[in-house]
From TrEMBL:
Family annotation (InterPro entries): LysR_HTH_N (IPR000847), LysR_subst-bd (IPR005119), WH-like_DNA-bd_sf (IPR036388), WH_DNA-bd_sf (IPR036390)
Entry superkingdom: Bacteria
GO molecular function, one term: transcription cis-regulatory region binding
Name this protein carries in UniProt: LysR family transcriptional regulator
Family: Belongs to the LysR transcriptional regulatory family.
Coiled-coil stretches noted in the UniProt entry, renumbered to this chain: none
Keywords for this protein: DNA-binding, Transcription, Transcription regulation
Occurrences of domain HTH lysR-type (ranges): 4-61
Length: 300
């Protein structure tokens, strides 16, 4: 089945927001017959009736409203992708240079940068995506203005500010012996089990190491070291072994039962995500604006 195009999804969202095909067509700068044709094509592609068409006008069906809600989230993600890609593309000549660790770069930073761009469209933002340890190095060396890290630190020589929270989760594939387990894992069991892990210097790796040490269970036993959350996730799905990963990175896989979360007793896997910048330096201009937006977003 051919997937729906973004323009059709945007049209459906506008029909939901504005209450008519005609107004939605006007907002997109297309003729109403073209808009109606696009919606009919979308209905055929999805196999659903999305719009009730009557003499008094048009309104979304219950299925149409559900699809419009999902479409809105898709379009928001696409906007974040475009903003992040632009920031990556313009990093060398950027007025605001930013570095972020993987989880923050994937799930948070593009939205914050997008807001900076909305208030100051001429602001060039460059984004470098590296692990938390390298983010700190870039900030300390003055190669970026502001960094975002997920590692617990400490961060000598850097000022820090909480911008968000995250939770790590132990995951296994559906056929794993832990998948149907009723009793939570102990800290010792987790520490004794070889895990699929991120590379040293990763915030996720350091968070797990620190959590196990606090629980008195020693460190992580690496089964396989990989350089990204997606690589870790795919390795677990393929049956390589268990992993501890951000719950943000496995939402779809857990919902689809491709991965199963496993409870752990006595190990605190929550973490604080932080902004970092050189100690003693007062942020100004776009860097200060980005930090303010990030802090407000986390508080919300």
């Amino acid at each position: 089945m051919t997937g729906p195009d973004l323009d059709s999804l945007r049209l459906l969202v506008l029909v939901d927001d504005l209450g008519s095909i005609g107004q939605a067509a006007t907002a997109l700068g297309i003729a109403q017959p073209s808009a109606s044709k696009r919606l009919s094509t979308l209905e055929r592609q999805l196999g659903l009736s999305l719009v009730d068409r009557t003499r008094r006008g048009s309104a979304l069906t219950p299925d149409g409203r559900v699809i419009a809600g999902w479409a809105h989230r898709v379009l928001t993600e696409v906007d974040g992708l475009r903003t992040g890609a632009e920031a990556l593309r313009t990093q060398r000549g950027a007025r605001l240079r930013v570095a972020a660790s993987m989880t923050l770069a994937e799930h948070f930073v593009p939205a914050w940068i997008g807001e900076v761009k909305r208030t100051g469209p001429d602001t060039y933002v460059g984004l470098e995506v590296v692990n938390s340890e390298h983010v700190a190095e870039l900030v300390a060396d003055g190669r970026v203005d502001l960094g975002f890290v997920e590692s617990p630190g400490p961060w000598p020589g850097l000022s820090t500010r909480r911008v968000a929270t995250d939770r790590l989760v132990v995951v296994v594939p559906a056929g794993h012996k832990w998948a149907g387990r009723r009793r939570p894992l102990s800290a010792a069991e987790l520490a004794d089990t070889p895990l699929v892990v991120r590379e040293p210097g990763s915030g996720t790796r350091e968070t797990v190491e620190a959590a196990l040490r606090r629980a008195g269970a020693g460190g992580v036993k690496p089964l396989l070291e990989l350089g990204s959350a997606s690589a870790v996730r795919n390795a677990v799905i393929a049956g390589a072994g268990p992993a501890v990963i951000s719950e943000l990175d496995v939402v779809r896989e857990v919902a689809g039962r491709r991965l199963v979360p496993v409870a752990v007793a006595g190990v605190e896997l929550g973490r604080v995500l932080r902004a970092v910048w050189p100690a003693g330096r007062r942020l100004a201009g776009p860097a200060a604006e980005l930090l303010t937006l990030a802090v407000k977003s986390g508080a919300a």
